[in-house]
Amino acid sequence: MKKILLALDGAHFSKGAFDFACQLNDMQPLLLTGTFLPKMDFSPSWNSALVTGSVFEPTLEEYSDELVNENIKTFEEACIRHHIEYRVHKAPYDFTLADLKKETRFTDLLILGNEKFYENLGTDIPNDYLKMALHNAECPVLLIPENCHFPETIVMAYDGSRDATFAIKSFCYLLPELSAKKAILVYATDKEKAIPEMQLMEELVARHFTDLTIQKLEGDPGKYFDTWLADVDHPMLVCGSFARSDLSELFRKSFATEVMGEHRMPVFIAHS
Fold it and tell me: Is the bond leading into 126 cis (omega within 30 degrees of zero)?
């Protein structure tokens, strides 16, 4: 049994993220911990690496006890209805990013609704709060948009880096119930070069997926990968680092950001 943390800002309940957790529970029972976050205190020491300028801070009125308690009740009733073992963590008003980071240290997987997480910050996906939560999580993160399909195809983005390999291994270990899905290991490059450590990677991934295809995309990765991904049947994307300086040149820093903003698909992110 896995422990999954579903982090919800108190004002916005992500039905998409909860429904995805339900489908995972149907495949393999889990413990679902709902953490309900108020307006968080992001001190400069936490946001300086990711955000230039000040972070928009919603008012406390937007996170009233009444609204948070309503969402907690919705969560509890839904868990009971779907026969999910659950816990509720209601964060205090002085909750900080450090507190969320500590919660992720003691969980297997963090699920976030990437369209609902502090959605009052604006229409950008991901917004600043989501970027910081992703950057500092101490466990893999699964980003779920609203109204997305449960994955039929697992797309593993491989660029030869340690973080890409770590993300793929993390996915295999955490979600073996998805191993029967169609899987594609895709390597994108704008150069004529062999896929790095292909034999070793194939030996690893083929042990976990029964229907595996390995594909090399040539040309501009930012352009052709996006077009190629649009034709994949109900994909889930597995990728490495988010907004970190050591990303491989083959996948640009904005790679995960672009996928989140332009495609309605689950995205699994892990960094070593």
Answer: yes
